[in-house]
Amino acid sequence: MAAPMSGVGEASAERSSFNATSFQKKTRSRLISIPGTRPSVQNGQLLVSTGVTSLDYLLGGGLAVGTVLLIEEDRYDSYSRMILKYFLAEGVVCRHELFVAAAQDNPDDILQELPAPILDDVAIHKPVEQPRLSCEPQDSMDAMKIAWRYQNLPKVQSALASSSRFGHYYDVSKTMEPEIRQAAKCHRFYLPEHPTQSSPTHSTMLESYSALLKSLQDVIHREGFDVAAPMTKSRNILRIGLHSLGSALWGDDLCCHDNPNNVHALTSFLYGLRALLRSSLSVAVVTVPSHLIQDRALMGSITRLCDNAIALESFKGSERETNPLYKDYHGLLHVRQVPHLNCLASKLPDHKDLAFKLKRKQFSIERLHLPPDLSETVSRVSRGELAGAATMASGCSFGTSGNKHLDF
Amino acid sequence: MLTELLQGTDAGGFLIIQDSASYSGRHLLKSFINAALHREEAVHVLGFEVSEEELKDGLKGASIHRLHFHNVYTDPLGWTHNPAFTVYQFCSEGVTQLVKQTSQSKPVTLVIDSLSWILRHVGPPAVCKTLQQLRKGGAVRAIIGLLHADMHQRGTVGSVCHMATSVITVAPGMKGDEAVAKITKRSKSGKVMQDEEIFSFKEDFTVVVQNRPSQLGLKQTETEERETDPTANLTFNLRLSDTEREAKEKLALPFVFSKEKKTALLHSGRGSGRILYEPDANDDYDQEDPDDDLDV
Questions:
Q1: Are A11 and B287 in contact (CB under 8 A)?
Q2: CA A225, CA A219: separation in Å to the nearest integer?
Q3: Three-state secondary structure along chain A?
Q4: Confidence class of residue A322 from pLDDT cuts 50, 70 and 90?
Q5: For a 10 Å CB count at each end of chain B, is N or C smaller?
Q6: Where are the domains of chain A?
Q7: d(Cα A345, Cα B114) in Å, to the nearest integer?
């Protein structure tokens, strides 16, 4: 079970001194607070930031400790890799420990490409904050002459952001300073360095995944991330980043064949990973090249085995690149699954049509807006058609939109 | 972009030429071999599909001695007693050994004709692993492979191309000797560039690139109609002269208040019936779960 946080106990402590009775409320012993985490406002889970504040908002405030985030990669693995780097960079800034595993690139290369944090907190923008606080009119917004009553109303908040300063912002054009990076402890797993021999026992998991799981287990036990470990020293969070699981370089033919031989290899691994995470103070981000997996049922079961799942679809290379609707964005983001931890229902995101854009200082995820159609060819519905449509909608639905008035 | 690719791949680059039954990519492969030979690189060819004479046909010049052909064509599966190289020996150690036998210390360009042959007999994960090891190892500088896309499942083609730095997909063009190449190139920084070009060959396998294919057929770009000025050609005057515009702006509109009144109206949210409540000691304002003290 993911580590829950007890509620705020301070208010009750103050209140108790005013109580007339001798009734003492039994409060649970509080966990030592871990830097870089905060309790969720919805269900009291301990949350960490993913490094992307818009993504934190989508996931309900952040990633709960003990859960897995699955990212379905885009076609050229540019943006999913970027989110993985944000996640690791956030770990460095919050002084968590890192564990990076990859089969294609050396984890050291991934760690060297982490974006530089913007440490000057004052410089964080956010012009969509409501200007009710300031009495003088803002210079950026031109004062409206006729509609001045609407001047102070907030603009449509299309960029999703959580209200508190939980996550940090990063500058993608610069890489993180080596001093900052070396201050954080990193564990690496590079698959070519672990020569695998074919195991004599027939197991459903591949040797590469078994080796990875074993290595994770060792790190968690050794460094004391187990929940069951004695709480003598200060606790920390382990951030696990697994790059491109399921690709052919991990030895898995999930992406290569329509009917793979090792159908259950990745699913067994994810099951074991989630069991390991639930009993430790760690968070995992896994990227999977889902565009290569042909079996949709298998992709569905992989999604179900992870707690959070998002899919990135970049416009590069597809015909959507030239579509004027999408010209402001770099791709679409689909939320495949949100977790329900210790509760029956989960908080679903308000909007289903989300698009992302990688700017220099922010990875923003916004609701996809239809731009106003200002061309001359906008069809104007005549009144007769409108009336006909209204009668059809109120009665039984015919489904044809070409009918004009029906005379009864 | 095709000419840039022909002029040289970066170290550690992996280029795939994807063809199909309707158009063979071997001509383009020979162009790449030709260009590499002219750049004075040592080229090693693993020939699975065509014989040495057929591959060397048309490639002439003094630099032909830098081309080393490893004949896997005659006996790829090792049915005779002493095969030169079999397809099962396609692993990084085997290929490195083969390349080091005949070449000096300089890293070579490895050309594989074709990858499809290997993928039929050795599984895709092993092939991908070998290619990755060859790229990271020092013996091979660049790899160029020919892949027949219609021979494999989509996932296989996708997995192999996922590892490549550049992919060129060739298809027959409109006219007889022209072909269309769709090129995708991934740079080290993660930037992806795409291009589509029409090309044809000259006698000595040099590539002539024509212009981009024009947008015919289904993709019709809509030409924007020039906006007609609605104020022209009317019997009455809809335009404003400068003095008229100034007068218009000076006009006081009926509901335009002075600035002070505006700000007073805008910020008058307070004081109009807000309920202020301070929870006192008798209220049970408790955020915790009342069942917490049950010792269950």
A1: yes
A2: 8
A3: CCCECCCCCHHHHHHHCCCCCCCCCCCCCCCCCCCCEEECCCCCEEEECCCCHHHHHHCCCCEECCCEEEEECCCCCCHHHHHHHHHHHHHHHCCCEEEEEECCCCHHHHHHCCEEECCCHHHCCCCCCCHHHCCCCCCCCCCCCCCHHHCCCCCCCCECCCCCCCCCCEEEEEECCHHHHHHCCEEEEEHHHCCCCCCCCCCCCCHHHHHHHHHHHHHHHHHCCECCCCCCCCCCCEEEEECCCCCHHHCCCCCCCCCCCCCCHHHHHHHHHHHHHHCECEEEEEEECHHHCCCHHHHHHHHHHCCEEEEEEECCCCHHHHCHHHCCCCEEEEEEECCCCCCCCCCCCCCCCEEEEECCCCEEEEECCCCCCCCCCCCCCCHHHHHHHHHHHHCCCCCCCCCCCCCC
A4: confident
A5: C
A6: 2-122+161-168+176-309
A7: 54
Q: Say how many CA atoms lie within 13 Å of B144 toward its Cβ.
A: 25
Asked whether the beta carbons of residue B190 and residue A78 sit closer than 8 angstroms, the reply is yes
Q: Token digits for A86?
A: 């944000």
Chain B residue numbers with beta carbons less than 8 Å from the beta carbon of A248 are 124-125, 127-129, 159-160, 162-163
pTM of the model: 0.73
pLDDT digits (tens, 9 = 90+) for A339-374: 888 877 777 778 788 999 999 888 999 888 776 666
Chain B interface includes A139 (CB < 8 A)? no
**Any residues with CB less than 8 A from the CB of A94 and at least 6 apart, and which?**
A35, A36, A37, A48, A49, A237
Q: A404 vs chain B: nearest CA distance in angstroms? A: 31
Please state, in angstroms and rounded to a whole number, the distance separating the CA atoms of residues A251 and A48.
32
What are the tens digits of pLDDT across the range A119-138?
754 333 334 433 333 333 44
Per DSSP bridges, beta strands B179-186 and B166-172 are antiparallel
The C-alpha atoms of residue B111 and residue B144 are separated, in whole angstroms, by 5
Mapping DSSP to helix (H, G, I), strand (E, B) and coil, where does residue B147 land? strand
Judged by a CB distance cut-off of 8 A, whether residue A194 touches chain B is no
First-to-last C-alpha distance (Å) of chain A = 64
- The CATH code belonging to domain A2-122+161-168+176-309 is 3.40.50.300
Domains of chain B: 1-210 (3.40.50.300)
Q: Kindly state the helix (H) or strand (E) to which residue B32 belongs, with its residue range.
A: helix B26-38
Q: Do B287 and A252 make contact, defined as CB atoms within 8 angstroms? A: no
Residue B137, amino acid: G
Predicted confidence (pLDDT) per residue in A67-101, tens digit: 999 999 999 999 999 999 999 999 998 889 999 99
**Nearest partner of A49 among A96, A14, A12, judged by Cα:** A96
- CA-nearest residue to B256 within chain A is A146
Q: Which of A255, A293, A298, A319 to mutate to test the interface with B (most CBs of B within 10 A)?
A: A255
